[in-house]
Amino acid sequence: MSRSLRRGALAASAIVVSIASLSACGSGNDAQTLQVKPDNAATSVGDIKLQNVTVITQPDAATGPAVITGTIFNNGTGPQTLDSIAVKGYDGKVALHAAKGAGPITLPAQSSVTLGGKGNASAVIADGSAAATDGNAQLVTFSFSDTGEVPLRAFVVPARSYFEGYGPSSIPVTPKPKETPSGTPTGTASGTPSGTPEGTPSGTTSATTGQ
Q1: Which of 44, 103, 166, 183 could lock onto 116 through a cystine, CB 3.0 to 4.6 A?
Q2: H/E element, 191
Q3: What mean pLDDT value characterizes the chain?
Q4: Are the C-beta atoms of residues 76 and 109 closer than 8 Å to each other?
């Protein structure tokens, strides 16, 4: 075999080995390394899938509400309702509001519902600073009418940059101190007059003249 043919055979062998290695990686125990997972929390239980779940707090270091955002998919053949959301370590209730009307958040079959953002359903935590800390991965549990509990860890971020339009709609304003007049009396009168006149005028006439 000539030198050029030998080099060509070696190159072809190297290509075959490379392809075989890639195929083994894709079909073996390390196949999951080829998957790209989103930065935000996602999980699925039964017919329910949660995606991009995030806890969004106040944009600055202030007390006030926080919200839970994300997308809920119902891949089942029947509707379900989102009954509650619980945040680990927070005893308060997460207020759920449908996008329209006063009823519960309903997920029709083969559809999705978005939490957070203008015109969408919402999940509001009244005391955001007590429920979550920026930078943490908070355990959040969704409860559905049929599927039951679906827990996952959600990142806690302030309502800045990409999350600005999805944060709490009511951002607290620091109240101005009330001013009071400095010269007003600090007390009330402590007593009443101690006496009344004891007599009548001494110069009145005791009898009329000419009688």
Answers
A1: 166
A2: none
A3: 73
A4: yes
Instruction: Identify the domain containing residue 130 by its residue range.
Output: 41-166
pLDDT interval class at 17 (50, 70, 90):
very low
The residue count for the chain = 211
Nearest to residue 66, comparing CAs of 58, 78, 74?
A: 58
Q: How many domains does the chain have?
A: 1
User: Which pair of structure tokens corresponds to residue 66?
Assistant: 């926080």
- 66 belongs to a structural domain: yes
> What contacts 74, CB < 8 A, 6 or more positions away?
47, 48, 80, 107, 108, 109, 110, 111, 112, 113
> Which residue in the block uniquely carries the two structure tokens 């125990």?
29
| DSSP annotation string for 90-122 | --SPEEEE-SSSSS-EEE-TTEEEEESSTTSBE
Q: What would the pLDDT profile of 33-44 be if each residue is shown by its tens digit?
A: 333 344 668 999
pLDDT of amino acid 163: 75
Q: Which two tokens stand for residue 14?
A: 């190297």
User: What is the torsion angle, in degrees rounded to the nearest 10, for the CA atoms of residue 55, residue 115, residue 41 and residue 72?
Assistant: 150
Type of residue at 107? L
User: Residue holding tokens 């083994």?
Assistant: 24
pLDDT digits (tens, 9 = 90+) for 57-103: 888 766 789 999 999 999 999 999 999 999 998 998 999 999 987 78
C-alpha distances in Å from residue 199, one per residue of 67, 193, 203, 205: 80, 17, 12, 15
Under 8 Å between Cβ of 66 and 56: yes
- Asked if 79 and 106 count as a contact pair (C-beta separation under 8 A), the reply is yes
